[in-house]
């Protein structure tokens, strides 16, 4: 996927360290790593962090990004259902689990170390 283009500062707020605990926080760029940030925030984040996502990426972009992320990426299905209701998402993307595991391993290699 391509980068998200914003004119804002490319740094994640410090309170996202808890959400991105498995990654090297200093290497995370909100414009390049938006999928992982969004998934982790929806899975483990607070309402305040959800609001930051909406402010930073914009509602329309956030909705489009979430619709393109495979549903299997989300572990907190209640949170996914809530954000779907809030953003008006009617259908999520589906991918098989094997592809998901490969994608997670590739993402971790990019952030860790």
Question: How is this structure best described in words?
Answer:
- It is a single chain.
- This protein is an all-alpha fold and 113 residues long.
- It has one domain.
- It has 5 helices and no strands.
- The chain is globular, with a radius of gyration of 13 Å.
Secondary structure: elements and pairs:
Layout: H1 34-44, H2 47-57, H3 59-68, H4 77-87, H5 97-111
Helix pairs in contact: 2-3
**What class, by secondary structure content?**
mainly alpha
Mean pLDDT: 84
For the secondary structure, the number of strands is 0
Instruction: From the alpha carbons, calculate the radius of gyration and give it in angstroms.
Output: 13 Å
Number of helices: 5
Give the termini separation. 23 Å
Structural domains: how many: 1
Order of helices and strands: HHHHH
Task: Provide a concise account of the structure shown.
The protein is mainly α and 113 residues long.
Name the features.
mainly alpha; 5 helices
